[in-house]
Amino acid sequence: MDSIIILCDGAYPTEPYPLYLLESAEAVVCCDGALEKFAQHFPGRMPLAVVGDMDSLPEDLKKQYSEVLFHETEQDYNDLTKAMRWVLREHPEAEEIVILGATGLREDHTIGNLGLLMEYTRMFDLGDRKVSMVSDYGTAFAITDTCDLHLGEGRRFSLFSADNSLRITSKGLQWPLDGVVFDAWWKATLNRTTEPIVSLTFNHPSSALVMVD
Q1: How confident is the model over 159-195, as pLDDT tens digits?
Q2: Which residues contact 147 (CB under 8 A, 6 or more apart)?
Q3: 8 Å CB contact between 140 and 209
C-alpha cells in the first residue's frame, strides 16, 4: 500500500482536511487508546493494526479486535513510536505515513510527539518516505538538509531546531532565517511564506521541524 494513517489518542480531528485523510485512508493503524474513538466513528471498519501496551483498552474492544492487536510490553518508547516502528517493519513499501490525533488534550504529549518527528529521522531509515503530523490547526514535518518546500504563498510558517550550531539561509519567507541562532524554541516561529516555494539552505545536515497552516 502507498500510504498509512497512524491514529493517536489525542484530540480527534474535527476539521475537513484531517477528517478527509482519515475517512479516505487506505489503511489505519491505531495506537491502542485511539481504537475506542476509531470504533465509535467507524463502526464495523477494521484497522490494519492496533499497536501498544493495551493498558487503556476496554476488554470488550480487546476481544472484538483481537485479530489485529499487536501487544508491545516494553516501556522505553511511547505508543506512537511503537506504531511507527510496526508500520516501517511490516509495510516498508508505504511511501507516506500521516499521523493524526497526536496533539491536543495534553501539552506534554503534544510537545513530545512533535519532537519525535525530528527524532524519527535519526531512529529510522526513512529514505524518501514522507512522514507528517496533521491536526485541525496545521501540518508538521521534519527536514534534515537543504531543500525546497512547495508550500504555497501566504501560509503561516514556523521552524524549530535543537541544534544551536545549525545555520539556515532562506528564500520565500517574510522574515529570512539568515543569522538565526537556534538556542531557543521561539527563534524561527510565527513567520509567513511570501512565495510558492520556500528554499532553505543548511550549513550542515541536521534535524529541524517545520509547521505550516
Answers
A1: 999 999 999 999 999 999 999 999 999 999 999 999 9
A2: 199, 200
A3: yes
Tally of CB atoms within 10 A around 176:
13
Inter-residue contact 28 to 5 (CB < 8 Å)? yes
pTM for the structure as a whole: 0.94
Question: What are the E-state strand segments in 96-176?
Answer: 96-100, 130-135, 138-143, 147-150, 156-160, 168-171
Cα gap 149→11, rounded to integer Å: 27
Alpha carbon distances (Å) from 56 to 50, 111, 198, 206: 12, 21, 42, 36
Q: Within a 10 A sphere around the Cβ of 140, how many other Cβ atoms?
A: 24
Amino acid identity, position 89: R
Tell me how far apart the alpha carbons of residues 44 and 65 are, in angstroms, rounded to a whole number. Answer: 10
Query: What is the CA 106 to chain-centroid distance, rounded?
Result: 16
**Residue 24 in grid coordinates:** 479516505
* Pairing mode, strands 156-160 and 208-212: antiparallel
Q: How far apart are CA 126 and CA 96, in angstroms?
A: 10
